[in-house]
Amino acid sequence: MAVTILGIESSCDDTSAAVVRDGLLLSNVMAGQEVHRRYGGVVPELASRAHQQHIVPVVDTALREAGVTVEELDAVAFTQGPGLLGSLLVGASFAKGLALARGIPLVAVNHLMGHVHALFLEGPEKSPSFPFLCLLVSGGHTQLMRVTAPLEMETLGKTIDDAAGEAFDKCAKMMDLPYPGGPVIDRLAAEGDAGRFRFAMPRVQGLDFSFSGLKTSFLYFLRDELKKDPLFVRNHLNDLAASLQATIVRILMEKLHEAVRRTGIRRVAIAGGVSANSALKETLIRTGEEEGWEVFVPRPRYTTDNAAMITMTGYFKYRKGLFAPQEITPRARMML
Ligand code: KG4
Ligand code: ZN
């Protein structure tokens, strides 16, 4: 019997719904929220309201595009956390209502685990086999994981302060670039000289990361240069973007090398919003060729928040009978 699962992701500003049948993605629909752009970040109150408006049409479209009726669903998965509480509540309440109405199981998904499962959305032949290392880099998290089975992940190291995506976004803000800054810096960096400026590299032991030092060093650097030339940022935008991006990539790659050295695992993946970054992807692929690593990178549409990855986790948990009770509540903070 085929297993058909609807999944909902509403942890931040995008409302997304997807349908997975027997581990294969049938649809993945997303509604973004333009409202936050002029505030330079996500406004939680506005995000919750937009989720309320989007969730029904988004689910409807996901089912229609998959060619699946609501009666055919075997379970409904949703993001339990981490994320914005008000946003999570919209997805959780919708999922609970649907599960109750249809008498089907509810599956709660850890958003971070979902990001890792983006690597399984291209079908079994293109998915990593186990064990593999996964560098999860998003707007809120930066951690290195050893993945030994679909639902078995151990954190080997994580950031002690900011996330990699946060470093992109905060430094972009210092340069008056729009939010989210990561993709903007990526685009600007393509035309820039990555060796033009140098910023402080963190000294953190083991497999942990730190990005707040880079942020501070970037801020002081801009402040000093702007004193001399008020148009410094505008005149050097591409080189600044390229140099900053190169530093972030260097920090991430150093730890990946260390993780491979320590674990002996040569199957290496990246996931999360920042894994869309072209310099990171190129460096990882090139390193893979040089070092003999087997490298996995999710397609851009599955790197930033989306329901496809959440529904895939839902499928893995469904197979293990890991269901959630109706009393379950979303959680703003959750570990992996
Ligand atoms: O995974 P995600 O969509 O949301 C979280 O769970 O946090 O990640 C969003 C983050 C943002 O910080 C955004 O700037 C960053 O991913 N990002 C990028 C790129 N695309 C998205 N950072 C660098 N280069 C990109 N191309
Ligand atoms: Zn995310």
Structure write-up:
This protein is 43% helix and 18% strand. With 336 residues, the chain is an alpha/beta fold. The chain folds into two domains: 4-118 and 303-319, 2-Layer Sandwich (Nucleotidyltransferase, domain 5), CATH 3.30.420.40; 130-297, ATPase, nucleotide binding domain (Nucleotidyltransferase, domain 5, 2-Layer Sandwich), CATH 3.30.420.40. It has a five-stranded mixed beta sheet, sandwiched between helices. Strands 8-7-6-9-10 form a five-stranded mixed beta sheet, sandwiched between helices. A hairpin with a 5-residue loop joins strand 1 and strand 2. It starts with a strand and ends in a 17-residue tail after the last helix. The mean pLDDT is 96. Bound molecules: 5'-O-[(R)-(carboxyoxy)(hydroxy)phosphoryl]adenosine and zinc ion. Zinc ion binds next to helix 3.
Keywords:
single chain, 336 residues, alpha/beta, Nucleotidyltransferase, domain 5, five-stranded mixed β-sheet, globular, binds 5'-O-[(R)-(carboxyoxy)(hydroxy)phosphoryl]adenosine
Topology:
Blueprint: E1 4-9, E2 15-21, E3 24-31, H1 44-66, E4 75-81, H2 85-102, E5 106-110, H3 111-117, E6 132-137, E7 142-149, E8 152-158, H4 164-174, H5 181-189, H6 212-228, H7 232-235, H8 237-263, E9 267-271, H9 278-291, E10 294-296, H10 307-319
Parallel strand pairs: 1-4, 4-5, 6-9, 9-10
Antiparallel strand pairs: 1-2, 2-3, 6-7, 7-8
Helix pairs in contact: 1-2, 3-10, 4-5, 4-6, 4-8, 5-8, 8-9
Short description:
It contains 10 helices and 10 strands. The protein has helices at 44-66, 85-102, 111-117, 164-174, 181-189, 212-228, 232-235, 237-263, 278-291, 307-319; strands spanning 4-9, 15-21, 24-31, 75-81, 106-110, 132-137, 142-149, 152-158, 267-271, 294-296. A hairpin with a 2-residue loop joins strand 7 (142-149) and strand 8.
